[in-house]
Write a structure and sequence with these properties.
Blueprint: E1 11-18, E2 24-31, E3 37-43, E4 50-52, E5 58-60, H1 63-73, H2 81-97, E6 102-104, H3 105-119, H4 121-131, H5 137-152
Helix pairs in contact: 1-2, 1-4, 2-3, 3-4
Length: 153
């Protein structure tokens, strides 16, 4: 860091506090050479997470899309809004903890299905039928049989 007035590199921090929006740190600094004061803001540099779709196109990650899919799957089910929010938070945490810059929709869908399976089996089947694009009743029955067998274990 250099002083914006005299270009000296000997700067000291006088005061640090969160900025108004709590998304940055406001630092009050003073130049050791000229004595002038100035303010800097430090912000975390975030790289947007890109979602790779089935057709290989990319778009920015959007939490609301996961929420909408889960809400639809849980429609008229005994699942609270808090449970849905927690599920989406868990999925989002796993996505961001992977520290990848791109994630495939298949990975997101599988994470959601795993969480829904634990939360509500009917919501899980609803979500998986849309997500996996079940073409006929036989595919639907196979998924139910698999769910039933896993349940017996």
């Amino acid at each position: 860091m250099k002083c914006p007035f005299c270009n000296n590199e000997n700067i000291r921090v006088i005061d640090s506090r969160p900025a108004e929006d709590n998304n940055a740190i406001r630092r009050r600094r003073q130049c050791e050479a000229c004595g002038r004061r100035f303010t800097t803001y430090e912000k975390i540099e975030t790289i947007p997470l890109m979602v790779v779709k089935k057709d290989e196109s990319r778009e920015a990650y959007d939490r609301s899309k996961i929420e909408a899919g889960v809400l639809l799957a849980c429609h008229k089910r005994p699942v609270s809004a808090q449970d849905i929010s927690r599920l989406v938070d868990e999925v989002e945490n796993e996505i961001f903890n992977s520290e990848e810059k791109e994630i495939h929709t298949t990975r997101i869908g599988n994470l959601v299905m795993d969480k829904l399976r634990e939360l509500d089996e009917v919501a899980y089947v609803r979500f998986s039928s849309v997500y996996r694009e079940f073409k006929d009743v036989n595919t639907f029955l196979k998924e139910l049989e698999k769910l039933y067998k896993d349940r017996k274990k």
